[in-house]
Automatic annotation (TrEMBL):
Record domain DUF7865: where: 1-109
Residues annotated as transmembrane: 30-52, 64-82, 94-116
InterPro entries: DUF7865
KW Transmembrane (keyword) present: yes
Protein name: DUF7865 domain-containing protein
Keywords of the record: Membrane, Transmembrane, Transmembrane helix
Amino acid sequence: MMFYLNEISVFGHGPETARKLQGSTPHDQLLIQISDSFAGLLLFAIGFLLFMVSFVKDRDFQNFFAKGCILLHVFMALWRICFERHLEDLARDWPRQLVGDVVLSLSWLFFLVYSWREKYD
């Protein structure tokens, strides 16, 4: 993802929006590259955390973790509704990303329902 950032931006947003999102000055471009690097680091940390939690046998902790993930996805959906839809360069993308946030939170909700069914049967 880091090596083909321009191609991914063009594929996801289109050529004009990708050009605008790259920044117009060298300082802006450096800030955007640093932001992308931190986003990649965050994705790696989240994946590692999910990998560690998958080996935990405590059902109560996994339910607590799933509730936290649901809350995180709900807040991301609210962020997209309240702020990202007002950015004209990203206005085309926020409904698709909102659907993704809702689907991910539903997947954690289905995990909770499955674990409750398993607990009370």
